[in-house]
Amino acid sequence: xKKQKNAQIIILxxxxxxxxxxTVGFAAYTQNLDIGGTxxxxxxxxxxxxxxxxxxxxxxSQAVTVDMPSDTSINFxxxxxxxxxxxxxxxxxxxxxxxxxxxxxxxxxxLSPEQSKYLTYTVSYGSASFTSTNNxxxxxxxxxxxxxxxxxxxxxxxxxxxxxxSSDATVSLSLKLVYNQQV
Length: 183
Fold this sequence. Notes:
There is one protein chain. By secondary structure, the chain is mainly β. The chain is built from 1 helix and 10 strands. Strands 1-4-9-6-7 form a 5-stranded antiparallel sheet, with no helix packed on it. The N and C termini lie far apart (80 Å).
């Protein structure tokens, strides 16, 4: 029995030594990899705006009163007296930022069914013409570039004269150009 107990102690001692040897051996084969560095970030700016000096009244247009409270906002007023009258103006959207932008969305107010009988409202951006909201654009406006925006509202002769407005009407129109960083 004493021999068996001695044998067990020897076996346990050998197993303990094997575990310690394996642990030390594994530690010797462990290696850490470290990464360090620095990054320089250059200054940049986001600047999409209207160029106020590029505003032009369209040829043959009725008088348009324009208010530009900021570089990103334009309000206009015009009076159309009879079918065939229209108001039209153009202005440039400019990217003075340090990286490219993309026009992703053009949001236009809608004419009511009654108004659309005697008015048309169109917006041209670059070479494309729009009569309603478009949420799926992908039109680049690269840094340092500009694009012409033309707004035109026309009093059209309806096919049925009874669709002419029976009293003076004031129609509010809006346009929003939504730009994002081009990735």
